[in-house]
Amino acid sequence: MVRGFVTANGMEKKRTSDEFEPGPIPPSQPVDRFGFIKQEQNSPDGITKSRPANEHEREERRIRKWRKMIGVGGSDWKHYVRRKPHVVKRRIRKGIPDCLRGLVWQLISGSRDLLLMNPGVYEQLVIYETSASELDIIRDISRTFPSHVFFQQRHGPGQRSLYNVLKAYSVYDRDVGYVQGMGFLAGLLLLYMSEEDAFWLLVALLKGAVHAPMEGLYLGVKVVFKVGLALLRFCHDGLIKLPFEKLIHALRNFPEDAMNPDTLLPLAFSIKVSKRLEELKQEYEKRNVASLQQTGSANRQQLAIKDKEFSIRPETSNCVPKDDSSR
Amino acid sequence: MDSSSSSQPEFDYLFKLLLIGDSGVGKSSLLLRFTSDSFDDLSPTIGVDFKVKMVTIGGKKLKLAIWDTAGQERFRTLTSSYYRGAQGIIMVYDVTRRETFSNLADVWAKEIDLYSTNQDCIKMLVGNKVDKESERVVTKKEGIDFAREYGCLFLECSAKTRVNVEQCFEELVLKILDTPSLLAEGSAGVERNIFKQKPPQADASTSSCC
User: How far apart are CA B125 and CA B84, in angstroms?
Assistant: First the structure.
């Protein structure tokens, strides 16, 4: 079960990070449907997993519904969300069609509005401002999604866009600057939208637009928890037999069938989480709030998150719905 | 996959080692080279990571739990808690980047003083990326001088070409094996509840309750 880093055909994709001339366009390699280069040959060829025909039709129907819901260029979205929040919630849980994610994410997060309210700002940030984090960002660019076709080419369009977005963000939000890990967030967004759109969505996620910063994460933490539980439950029989060291590896490399959203998410939503967790959390916070306040600026972020948890506005619950598993 | 937990290999000691140093100096690459003998583009470490390796050094069977930490300053509140109980700490710098070396004194040595709980904890200074000899800006002598001043072991290595990588860990472990106070801890380890462990010596049984 050892996952090799060497790609198919024995071709090594080692790219050391010294040279600064634009790299060659990497040879085309088999990729998965998200554009990541397939790393494994150990999955037998039979597992090509061509999705059944009816699934394709279902996807088409789904896209049509979504298009109707969004309207041309998102014109109907706000109206629809206000009128039928439960429908929106249900459809989001079934999965936003891949081709519409870029647009829908911008609508849900409110980043569209940020973009419209701030014409020219992104360009200004990218071209004229300098950031103290520039070197840190550059150092991480080639380490972000190195196995994705878009980011693979040294100094190619993918890496350049990623750099621009991260640099712009580090200038826009100087208190936070650049934090390792942001690249994976920005990189993912860039697979779905333009640089400028990705930048404003990053701002909406991290600093807040319609929603409080990372509100989705904190409201949706129960969902994240449930997905985790569902993964564990799905793999229970295999995991329980593993010794500790192998367990670490296994927890990082769940089998592909466990990750299938069509089975994983229904399983996740079927799991009930007791309120006990919430009680424990409150108890923990009560005990720790004093010590947290003492530790000062280092924990500023955590404190900020705490504040936000108590200021969630009810009208926003349309889009990031409260969980209703307590039926 | 042979996975029955009863077949867990025995070992004489469990050591906790820690890798620290600036972002991008090659901590994760060193670890990957040591544990899997491979080299690849690695993502920046977010928070902490860890790997386990069984080795036989100095005639002893050892289980090394090696913790790999994020180098970026932002994660320091998080990584600081991982110094606790480490028998060995490896400080890594990049011989081609001066600031990663100067940060050893300005940042990393202080971090060790602040957070390490083992007084006798063995420190090791490692200058990585010696394969890029033409870009070198930190001389070997500077490394040696620093190590002498701070009481560390010292080696230069390359995770890319694997030069000296094994030696880094080996020398560190040999020194730990030479230090009785650390040995006692490694054998009656605090992580006993996680790592199923056979107490090697009779003295461990004196503390048992029945």
Answer: 19
Query: CA of B76: which chain A residue's CA is closest?
Result: A298
**Is residue A259, in this structure, part of any structural domain at all?**
yes
A105–chain B nearest CA distance, Å: 25
- Alpha helix locations (H) across A142-275? 149-152, 157-172, 182-190, 195-207, 215-219, 221-234, 236-239, 244-252, 261-270
Enclosing domain of residue A264: 220-270
Q: Does A243 touch chain B (CB under 8 A)?
A: yes
Distance CA A111, CA A80 (A): 18
Same domain? For A146 and A186 the reply is: yes
Prediction pTM value: 0.72
In this complex, how many residue pairs, one in chain A and one in chain B, have their CB atoms less than 8 Å apart?
A: 62
Cβ of B23 and A244 within 8 Å?
no
pLDDT tens digits, one per residue of B169-198: 999 999 999 998 888 877 744 444 444 444
Residue A142 lies in a domain: yes
**What ipTM score was computed for the predicted complex, to two decimals?**
0.73
Question: Nearest 5°: CA angle at B67, between B63 and B71?
Answer: 160
Q: Indicate whether A230 and A171 sit together in one domain.
A: no
Identify which of A24, A49, A23 has the alpha carbon closest to the alpha carbon of residue A38: A49
Q: Using a CB-CB distance cutoff of 8 angstroms, which residues of chain B are in contact with residue A14?
A: 39-41
Are residue A264 and residue A226 in the same domain, yes or no? Answer: yes
Amino acid at residue number A217: L
Contact, A227 vs A265, CB < 8 A? Answer: yes
**Do A23 and A156 form a contact (C-beta atoms < 8 A)?**
yes
Q: Does A36 touch chain B (CB under 8 A)?
A: no
Rounded Cα–Cα distance for residues B126 and B22 (Å): 12
Give tens-digit pLDDT for A275-297: 777 788 888 888 877 665 555 44
Please name the CATH architecture into which domain B13-186 falls: 3-Layer(aba) Sandwich (3.40)
List A residues 269-308 in contact with B (Cβ-Cβ < 8 A): 295, 298-299
CA distance linking residue B26 with residue A139, whole number of Å: 12
The total domain count for chain A is 2
